[in-house]
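Researcher: Let's do a round of design. I'm pasting the structure tokens now; please hold your answer until I've finished.
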């Protein structure tokens, strides 16, 4: 009997569905992350180049709005991804007595933490744009809020590093003890996924990095180039189908 004609083992279809939902959640988290940083960086680059207070004010307000929306969006999408990924690992252990190898998980978590740090650093510069727009009282209020947020962020960062180090050591130890999940032929593995997704994500990452370089004044692209990079970052993330 051909493999495709055999009935899948108990739980295989459920695991495949759980893995598909986890991949969808991961894609949502990546889209939220890349879009948040790209939008926030673009608005701030344009605000930096505004020549008058009247031009700076709407960009400052937009920068604040994007930052305020980005924080819950990042938290929610990454929380959903984490919940679904844990369901996959739990079900894999129930069926296979082991979970699929998570050797890359510590690096992924560290990369997301770095992106959180970049987002927060961009958000802490928002008060300066309101000062440039001559809204000094509101800028002072935002500065105090940014200071409080920075203290909370530093404390959270320290706790994350401690937890991450413990989790990374545990991941390495589990990888040395086990060969990983045997998997199943009915679940499309990593090699069966479209390669176009990786290319598009690479393009989005490069566009976001270029925008961050412009925000840090490492290069001075024209306004048209800034909009083009933003478009590339958004389109590559949205059309990616994993």
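Researcher: That's everything. Go ahead.
Model: Designed sequence:
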């Amino acid at each position: 009997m051909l493999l495709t004609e055999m009935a899948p083992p108990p739980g295989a279809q459920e695991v495949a569905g759980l893995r598909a939902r986890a991949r969808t959640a991961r894609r949502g988290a990546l889209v939220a992350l890349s879009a948040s940083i790209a939008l926030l960086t673009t608005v701030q680059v344009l605000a930096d180049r505004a020549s008058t207070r009247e031009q700076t004010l709407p960009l400052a307000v937009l920068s604040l709005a994007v930052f305020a929306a980005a924080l819950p969006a990042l938290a929610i999408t990454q929380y959903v991804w984490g919940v679904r990924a844990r369901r996959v690992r739990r079900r894999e252990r129930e069926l296979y007595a082991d979970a699929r190898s998570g050797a890359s998980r510590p690096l992924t978590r560290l990369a997301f933490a770095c992106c959180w740090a970049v987002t927060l650093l961009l958000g802490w510069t928002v008060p300066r744009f309101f000062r440039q727009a001559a809204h000094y009282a509101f800028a002072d209020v935002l500065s105090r809020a940014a200071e409080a947020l920075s203290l909370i962020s530093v404390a959270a960062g320290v706790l994350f590093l401690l937890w991450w180090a413990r989790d990374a050591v545990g991941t390495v130890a589990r990888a040395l003890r086990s060969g990983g999940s045997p998997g199943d032929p009915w679940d499309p593995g990593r090699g069966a996924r479209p390669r176009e997704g990786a290319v598009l994500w690479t393009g989005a990452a490069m566009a976001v990095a270029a925008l961050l370089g412009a925000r840090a004044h490492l290069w001075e692209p024209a306004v048209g180039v800034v909009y083009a990079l933003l478009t590339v970052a958004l389109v590559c993330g949205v059309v990616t189908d994993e």
